[in-house]
Amino acid sequence: MALLLLLLLMHFLVLPLSVSAAGGGDAYIGVNIGTDVSEMPSPKEIVALLKAQGIQHVRLYDADQSLLLALANTGIRVAVSVPNDQLLGIGQSNATAAKWVSRNVIAHVPATNITSIAVGSEILTTLPNAAPLIVSALTFIHSALVAANLDQQIKVSTPHSSSIILDSFPPSQAFFNRTWNPVMVPLLKFLQSTGSYLMLNVYPYYDYQQSNGVIPLDYALFRPLPPNKEAVDPNTLLHYTNVFDAVVDAAYFAMSDLNFTNIPIVVTESGWPSKGDSSSEPDATVDNANTYNSNLIRHVLNNTGTPKHPGIAVSTYIYELYNEDLRTGPTSEKYWGLFYANGEPVYTLHLTGAGTIFANDTTNQTFCVTKSNADAKMLQAALDWACGPGKVDCSPLLQGQPCYEPDNVVSHATYAFNAYYQKMAKSPGTCDFKGVASITTTDPSHGSCIFPGSFGKKGSKINGTLLAPSNSTSSGCLSQYHYNGGSFTSSVILVALLLNVFVM
């Protein structure tokens, strides 16, 4: 939003000519910039990161003056927002709306490339008492843009939670919560008359979490599915290979239910958390976040569209740029970011064919790591095998060497497993070790410990095959490795036994 997932090729449905991509042209990926960060980077640092990563579309949750100034003359397209706490004043006063536009938009364009205004956020579900003011707020903001001759370049809309869509699967049966029809009908009329788009927040993570096992994880993560595992809408016979497309199409059908068929959709928020509570949020992991966002980016930028509207771009903003450590609620609330506040990536996106966006893409990097639930004795045995019969050079794990710390079997086994996997040119079956290892796209390197197969801090790839031990008697010999945690053993008998046990 593909080389790692199946493309949707649903050409048998006639595409309505009146529907086009929001803003015209190809789809784009943007990033939300949240500010609930204890050590928030300066506007200058934020813009530097955006430039370095090739990010050309951002959405702000307000209209921060210093950040708008920092974004000037960068060409980056900016969506600004009217915070929920300002909706009341703007929705009740044309003059207040005009003043807001003057200060937060007119004062910055054209130097800052503001392209849209999001008025409030998820008002129907988070601030329902203010719902009757949404359309008037949109109208007043738009009127101020018309007066400034900016209405053609700056669109006005309001983001909605996908939870306002009821009976969302099959998508063809979806409709908006009819309690809100008195708001939705005039809202859609406004979007239609101004050439704007429906802003929708789509979170397959929450759909998966709340499905009680009904939604498969692979379906939520855009992973390829065999045809018999695809979800089929019995009314249209359209096949769905991921939750994201199903939710977007449900929104299209819900608009059709109200007789609106020509309003495009922009997804203003979507993402996956990289960490969560170990008991209640076990699928909030770095690997799943990497998988979801990498696949989402690729899906959007391929202009695949959805089964209902194939080829119609669904531009999307990822939630979000930084991890926000000040957010409250479940553990996962703090871990939706692509980057830490210091600009380091939380994980390395895996983006074949994504163009220039996200410069931290290191395509086709995979690593072999220990499984989180692996048995310690099995890890120990596999580690001994890798550093012995497996002929892995485990010298970086010696005390005083770069990968000695942390001094435990999990960390040391991860290094050894990956070294073997890279030495074997990532051949199928070389990352298993009797079920205690798995493949990941997340680089496990840390500090000065650069893992085989990593591009490292300076961007130079470390070739795992160069780390293969020599034929000397010391290289790869278990007897030279000892450490307090007991990860290595000098038992020749154990090595001999393991030689017959482990078949990679």
From TrEMBL:
Listed name of the protein: glucan endo-1,3-beta-D-glucosidase
Keywords tagged on the record: Cell membrane, Disulfide bond, Glycoprotein, Glycosidase, GPI-anchor, Hydrolase, Lipoprotein, Membrane, Plant defense, Signal, Transmembrane, Transmembrane helix
PROSITE patterns: GLYCOSYL_HYDROL_F17
Family: Belongs to the glycosyl hydrolase 17 family.
Domain X8 positions: 366-451
Transmembrane segments: 481-503
Superkingdom of origin organism: Eukaryota
Keyword Membrane included in the entry's annotation: yes
GO-annotated biological processes: carbohydrate metabolic process; defense response
GO molecular function list: glucan endo-1,3-beta-D-glucosidase activity
Topology within the bilayer: Lipid-anchor; GPI-anchor
PANTHER family: GLUCAN ENDO-1,3-BETA-GLUCOSIDASE BG1-RELATED-RELATED
Lineage: Eukaryota, Viridiplantae, Streptophyta, Embryophyta, Tracheophyta
EC number: 3.2.1.39
Catalytic function, reaction form: Hydrolysis of (1->3)-beta-D-glucosidic linkages in (1->3)-beta-D-glucans
Signal sequence segment: 1-21
GO cellular component entries: plasma membrane; plasmodesma; side of membrane
Subcellular location: Cell membrane
InterPro entries cross-referenced by the UniProt entry: GH (IPR017853), Glyco_hydro_17 (IPR000490), Glyco_hydro_17_plant (IPR044965), X8 (IPR012946)
Pfam annotation, one family: X8
